[in-house]
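Late entry, written up from scratch paper. The run itself happened at the end of the previous shift, but nothing got recorded in the book at the time, so transcribing now.
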Amino acid sequence: MSGLELSAPDAARIHAHLAGAYPEEGCGVLLGREADGARRIERVLPLANARADTRARRYLIAPEQFLEAERQAREAGLDVVGFFHSHPDHPATPSAFDLEHAWPYYSYLIVSVARGRVVDTRSWRLAADRSRFEAESIAASQAPAPAGGGAGTEGSR
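Output as recorded:
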């Protein structure tokens, strides 16, 4: 069973970053470990949206941001296991644009932010045939995560 384990402090950090980016999309990278299909997030890296245009509907993680996230993961003995971004005033479900730009393997945590407030958080993984996203569960991890803190990846609605 695939699922994402996220500590309450990391969830709060993600939510604060994405609410603070409103009315534009915010984004970041999830670092952690995977075992038996479950991903335990051990560090979140909030990033600036590197997109130059349509920032209210799109985000971009620039190649240098992704390389820096990979470096931090490697130094901590972790992996880049996913990405997070917001959907301002839209549901926390992947858009056609998200599907078109998604990479296999990764978790995609999407947070719906309405009028600057978080209203929903859901996580998704790209299906093996790349035709759709499949929902993945989100569970609170038992221990607080430590403070955290290539080609680009972009997406949104």
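The beta strands are 3-6, 27-35, 38-47, 59-61, 79-88, 107-114, 117-126, 133-140, 153-155.
(Scratch paper discarded after transcription.)
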